[in-house]
Amino acid sequence: MIPAILSSQPRLAALRRDIHAHPETAFEEQRTSDIVADFLAAAGIEVHRGLAGTGVVGVLRAGSSDKAIGLRADMDALPIMEQNIFPHRSRFDGRMHACGHDGHTAMLLGAAEYLAATRNFDGTVAFIFQPAEEGEGGARVMIEQGLFDLCPVQAVFGMHNWPGLPAGQFAIMPGPMMASADQFDITVRGHGAHAAMPHQGADPLVAGSALLQALQTIPSRTLDPLDAAVLSVTRFHAGDAYNVIPDHAVLGGTVRAFRPEVQDQVEAAMERICNGIATGYGVQVNLEYRRGYPATINTAAEAEACRSVAAALVGDEMVRGDLRPSMGAEDFSYMLQLKPGCYVWLGNGLGEGGCMLHNPHYDFNDEVLPIGASYWARLAEHLLARQ
């Protein structure tokens, strides 16, 4: 680790815990945004605010090169009731930093402060503090509002803590890291009836149950077995009474994949099955399929650069290149659709602090703060090395 960043670990931990205690959900990160902007300004970094409402971008230049890179951290919390009892637990019921974005913010701030003090690089670093990663597409909004016009970077990089990996270990792979995340709603409209006289109606629950099971054949019987995909029905709502067959049922869920072609296949197969169920059960079935976050795909050259930097920082044995990608999703993917880049995982630990993401008992492991901040700083110095 970089000694100057290691010595700042207590201060970064205090900052991280303050953010943890004051979580703000998507597009509401005003306090966090103020903290970030003030920190960057105090370090002598040019600050831009307002992209996606609460987004903050710090721009730091050194030397004369026109090379530029972007380093991104997310800032938002989740609508979860925290179950921890430590002093820095959330002060707001129903809001919690259960994904470690408080730690991501603190690590990038630590790197920004160090790079501003040393300026041992030639080019421009854009420190991108993004709102609304958790399902609301803050990265997409920042891009639409001119992120890459403000910061015409040649490559962009992201990092996420990863519980289950030993603390301080990196996972860096070329190709897919995270899946796409589509959503669907299906409305099955039948004809209501008395539950004692079902023959007088057209039961949307029976049709919906058949539909739910039929949808599960798409990954197993429609797709190439070598193409990973997940189709999960997560909602099934119908009726309010014990003696009434309702007139409609609503199903919803998610589809995950790594390739757009697979998304297209799944959507087409769902439409076909919905039409078949409608005909077979004498009901109307309407499918609403919405594309969500794209898959997060690392480019090979940038992944190799990140692997080299991480290995020099923590040792080859602490850099994994053999992990499977996750079927979770990440809106950093929007940035990678437009720019080369790499998204890495940093181990959050196996025990205390290693609780899984989106869990009400999760907490970011402060011991990895200087590791992540040092990685960001060394990556900038490597990619923008003086000639």
Gross geometry: elongated
Which CATH class of the largest domain? Answer: Alpha Beta
How far the N terminus sits from the C terminus, by CA atoms, comes to 24 Å
Average pLDDT level: 97
Helix content: 25-40%
Radius of gyration of CA atoms, rounded to a whole number: 24 Å
Order of helix and strand elements from N to C terminus: HHHEEEHEHHEEEEEHHEEEHEEHEHEH
The number of domains is 2
Q: What is the CATH architecture annotation of the largest domain?
A: 3-Layer(aba) Sandwich
Continuous helix count: 12
What composes the largest sheet?
8 strands, mixed
* Proportion of residues in β-strands: 25-35%
Reported by name, the CATH topology of the largest domain is: Aminopeptidase
Keywords: Hydrolase, Manganese, Metal-binding
InterPro entries: Amidohydrolase, Bact_exopeptidase_dim_dom, Peptidase_M20, Peptidase_M20_dimer
Cofactor: Mn(2+)
GO molecular function: hydrolase activity; metal ion binding
